[in-house]
Fold this sequence. Notes:
The complex is a heterodimer of chains A (166) and B (115).
Chain A: E1 2-4, E2 9-14, E3 26-32, H1 35-51, H2 56-77, E4 85-92, E5 96-103, H3 135-142, E6 144-151, E7 154-162
Antiparallel strand pairs in A: 1-2, 2-3, 3-4, 4-5, 5-7, 6-7
Helix pairs in contact in A: 1-2, 2-3
Chain B: E1 3-8, E2 11-16, E3 20-21, H1 26-36, E4 44-47, E5 53-54, H2 56-68, E6 75-78, H3 82-90, E7 99-100, H4 103-109
Parallel strand pairs in B: 2-4, 3-5, 4-6, 6-7
Antiparallel strand pairs in B: 1-2
Helix pairs in contact in B: 1-2
Amino acid sequence: MANHPGSGMATGVGDSNTPDRGDTPHLQFELGAEPHAVRETLTALGQRLRDFDVPEPRIDDAQITLAEVLNNIVEHSYADQPGGIINVDLWISPGDVACLIRDTGASMPMNRLPSAPPPDIQNTDVQDLPEGGFGWLLIREMTSALRYRRIGDENHLFFRVGSEAP
Amino acid sequence: MNLSFDRQGAIGIVKVEDSRIDASVAIAFKDRFRDMIADAEGDVILDLSRVEFLDSSGLGAVVAARKLMPGGRSLDLSGLTTSVDKVMRLTRMNTVFDIHPDLVAALAAHGQPPR
Lengths: 166, 115
């Protein structure tokens, strides 16, 4: 496991000790919940996916969805615990990248994924345009098999980023 | 967050010199943009050709930039890379902003011939 002092991030590549099927590459990242650590993790993760020849569009989608999820954890789950630990696991298959993100922050409201529709922008004056609220729209559009579970004091969010173009 | 300002005729061009507009730089982007457009006389084009990553925080910063334009003046976008274009399409922000493939096209749309 390589350690990057000061960034709160460690990276590693799992090997045959991990309970995976066959030769599925398994990447693991750990970071403290803070915007610069999120940025560093996404950059490193993008490079690792490139190393495994994941197609560029899928790397783009993985970076965007992970950015949205990790930013939500920073801003909401760990609102009272800056720097709280987030664990990211990725499994690379020919058709998709599976992602599991775990944290020990506050649970989702009502212990389930938000279902609010995205902001309406079609007939909106410029000064009334929303500057936020698009995160879950992007996550849902770019992923499949999205599921959230609260297990003990942990949040577990799982999804797949695949090759379908929306 | 590095932005540069240029001018062609009455059109201002703000170019983002960084490759990512995300949560860690969203506030700096807004502040720098506000500084940049102090020198603009009319419409502005935001050149995003160097930006490879824009998440919802980055999108919010670009929307905030749009709101900083003095009344009646437009902020168009140019040079969107694939991932940034996808985020704009999925959020339907491509219906709110005029998006041009590159700076030459954007300037032409504002009546400025290529240099």
